[in-house]
Amino acid sequence: MKKLMAFLMLxxxxxxxxxxxxxxxxxxxxxxxxxAKDGATIAAAIDYEQVRPSIENxxxxxxxxxxxxxxxxxxxGGDPLSxxxxxxxxxxxxxxxxxxxxxxxxxTQGQANTATKELAAAWAISSNQIDLKNLIQxxxxxxxxVDAVVKQQVQQMMNQQAAQLxxxxxxxxxxxxxxxxxxxxxxxxxxGQVKGYPITVEMQREGxxxxxxxxxxxx
Length: 219
Fold this sequence. Notes:
The chain is α+β, with helices and mostly antiparallel strands. It is 66% helix and 15% strand.
């Protein structure tokens, strides 16, 4: 009986160890896949129905905060400017955050494509990287044609971000030892640098030992 109890206790300890250690192993597997340029593994680990809305909200909220700092731009552009910018953000996120694009991005280690350039432009526009002087001039020149102004600004941002993305892909530093920590019994975060950008990834437990990426906090 004592041997049976000892065996059962050992099984319980092993089960707890596997349960508690599973996110660390998942994070290790993701880092290993990233280093091996195995985009399919990382793409399969993402819950796109949760990640896409989160990134959209991060960018649209940032753009709203940015506009509060520039009342003249907000006055000239008004609601059409916000609507056009937010529409572009949503479009960029939906195009970039897909299994196919994530796989391609990891396989090429950050080589820019159209979808990635658009997402980078959306991030730049929402994060106070707007050329304010040119934006005001464009709004005046185009007599309030917000769509034309946004398209022009987006193209400028895409050109700028494309060059920056290419530079970061070759010169940006990846974290050797990301910070790993539980944020709840079914919540786990991985924080570190990817090509020089600080990023936090949140994972959620699925079942007993499986984990899915449900959120990415942008820099």
